[in-house]
Design goal:
Elements (H helix, E strand, L loop, with lengths): L3 E2 L4 E2 L4 E2 L4 E2 L4 E2 L4 E2 L4 E2 L4 E2 L4 E2 L4 E2 L4 E2 L4 E2 L4 E2 L4 E2 L25 E3 L4 E2 L4 E2 L3 E3 L4 E2 L4 E2 L7 E4 L4 E5 L8 E4 L2 E3 L6 E5 L2 E4 L1
Parallel strand pairs: 1-4, 2-5, 3-6, 4-7, 5-8, 6-9, 7-10, 8-11, 9-12, 10-13, 11-14, 12-15, 13-16, 14-17, 15-18, 16-19, 17-20, 19-21
Antiparallel strand pairs: 21-22, 23-24, 24-25, 25-26
């Protein structure tokens, strides 16, 4: 199986695409980016230079993933979501001169396995999105998100827990949560959730 790149997409020859990865119209994948197998890069999406993306990742239309982001296996990035990379964004330096690549240090958004970022959400680097967590549409993430957390708002705050199916968990008893879709059980201790 090979990768598929649509005619109007731009994939730098120094980028690596895994087997079965598809890059749709008007998308851009920059030099040094590494995408695993079975990925989908939607129309107009952007993948920055050196970004590392695992297997079976979906970047929906117009998602922007700036370097040096790292996305684990099975990550979902919704339409028009943005992963930033500049902790102190400025177009010019203090003397008014246009800043170039050597004038600032990019910082990463790290998205762990199975996590989902809703449509038009923004992750302000540096930040880590925990495994199997869910960032609601339109949320602005400014601090780390725990595994399995459901976060929403501006700035994003935890409003619940989700399981691997992405469905909000139901608390059966203090500290014991269950997924109504899969019946999987989870334990909450000290603000963290773990699957049984």
């Amino acid at each position: 199986m090979t990768s598929i790149v649509k005619d109007t997409a731009q994939v730098d020859p120094r980028a690596e695409l895994g087997d079965g990865t598809t890059v749709w119209e008007l998308a851009q994948v920059r030099e040094g980016a590494r995408l695993g197998s079975g990925c989908i890069v939607g129309r107009g999406a952007y993948v920055g230079s050196g970004v590392v993306i695992g297997d079976n990742v979906k970047l929906q239309n117009y998602a922007l993933v700036y370097e040096p982001a790292v996305l684990g296996d099975g990550v979902f990035v919704g339409p028009a979501a943005v992963l930033t990379n500049d902790e102190y964004p400025r177009s010019v330096d203090p003397e008014g001169q246009l800043k170039r690549g050597a004038d600032w240090e990019p910082v990463a958004v790290v998205v762990e396995e199975g996590a989902s970022l809703g449509a038009r959400s923004v992750c302000v680097a540096p930040v880590r999105i925990g495994a199997w967590s869910l960032v609601a549409a339109g949320a602005v993430v400014t601090r780390d998100v725990p595994a399995y957390a459901l976060v929403a708002g501006v700035p994003a705050r935890r409003i619940g827990w989700v399981g691997r199916a992405g469905v909000r968990l139901v608390e059966e008893s203090p500290g014991v949560w269950r997924c109504p879709a899969t019946e999987s059980a989870y334990d909450e201790r000290d603000g963290a959730l773990s699957e049984r």
